[in-house]
Write a structure and sequence with these properties.
Blueprint (H helix, E strand, L loop, with lengths): L6 H12 L34 H8 L4 E8 L5 E5 L11 H13 L6 E6 L3 E2 L2 E2 L3 E4 L8 H13 L4 E2 L3 E4 L32 E9 L2 E7 L12 E6 L6 E6 L2 E7 L7 E6 L3 H15 L8 E3 L6 E7 L3 H11 L2 H16 L6 H16 L20 H11 L10 E2 L16 E9 L2 E9 L5 E9 L1 H5 L10 H25 L2
Parallel strand pairs: 5-7, 6-8, 8-15, 11-13
Antiparallel strand pairs: 1-2, 1-20, 3-6, 3-16, 4-5, 9-10, 9-14, 12-13, 17-18, 18-19, 19-20
Amino acid sequence: MQQLPTRRVVLGLLGAAAAAPAALADAPARSLRPVPRPTTAQSGPRARLPERPESLLDASGLTGATAWAVANLRTGATLEAVNADAGQPPASVAKVLTTLYALDALGSAYRFRTRLLATAPVQNGVLKGDLILAGGGDPTLSTDDLADLAKQLKDMGLREVRGSFLVWDGALPYAFSIDPEQPEQLGYSPAISGIALNYNRVYFEWKRAGKDYAVAMDARTQRYRPEVAMAEMRLVDRGIPVYTYSDRGGKDSWTVSAGALGKDGGRWLPVRKPADYAGDVFRTLARAYGLVLPAPKTTRNLPGGTVLAEKTSPPLAEILRDMLKWSNNLTAEMVGMTATAAREGRPPQSLRASAEAMTRWGAQRFGMQNTAMQDHSGLSDDSRMCAADLLGALVQAQKSGALRPLLKPIPVRDPKGRVMKKPEVSVDAKTGTLNYVSGLGGFMTAADGTELAFVIFSADTRARQKMSDAEREGSSATRHWNGRAKMFQQKLIARWGALYGS
């Protein structure tokens, strides 16, 4: 019988190869160092050598392109890399880079401020000047926060405003949508400006009333449910499209197919006029506290004034942890643009200009030469990031230990897709999902304590480009593809845990 090398010899050879990265610089797209296969008569640890990753990929049935890379976190040595220099749409895995960018520019303790300013003194409860709701780029601002600001005005005795009520949104540039190519009704691609409320989403609710429906648009939270005047919904008798949007009389004007509503229900819709939205809701809340304000006006120029009330956000580290957990796109864009403004001393010209600034920073800070971002969230499928670039950033960034605690734990699954209660490896990472795009990047700890950094990108851009508008909200074909991609990710993680950390 042929004498196979022992597991220790195999791992030793792999480690030696990883220590010479120059030899792997021009590795073929789907070729790795060979792993000896045990014979069927063999048993014990040698018989459990992990399957080759090419075989795992072939068996996954994934179409399109897949790339991955994994490194030993202690030594920084790349242990395995396939297509690692090929640019791929990173989807929400891009938020890892945004997190590093924001921490570098702002610091983990940074807090956003939303203020109420007065252009004249308040005398005997009367403000003879203007009242300004000044946004500070806070992506977490909620209806509850505006209610707290309104209460602060009541507590200080303000009863009347004789000037204008202005909403300043000039802290950040305005964008109609994070990604204009997304279906217009999707709440995860709202408008952006220097002020946001409820992640720039408005709640559309419908209730059956005989043969018709009663509809409402509100800015609900657990504490409040103020109706919104700047957004309206009209029911129409048609098949498709289910939703349409237009700017009608200065309002966010929506129509919906009545036949598509079914029973009672509701959904969040994107807001396209963030300053109008925040001003509308604050005016309603102020009225509840006895302060009647004129209709809000949006301004991009901030007049000077005295601070009457202020709301500060949680510290940036907490905001970033929630962003990575829930993958909120608006948070990524507003945090990213605030970081650019801090680095450059002025707001960026546009969302894309800010993303390009982050791209340059990644190249300078981490050597990310093959990355080109179009946003901070990864929502645009025009963004490109390569596995090797992000892997290098992960290895360098984790020297401070600040990143991994912000990432969410990823459940580890067995070969049948079931979550393992006591897995041999632990994973903290960021997922990324678009139609026909799936990514995962972060850190894992193997059974023996070995810590690895890894990145996995898969994308079938041709299939994505062929999708109809109706399919972009989700289809069985895209869910099937993305499910295969996630299972492949799990198999790679299991392989790495067995091969590099047993």
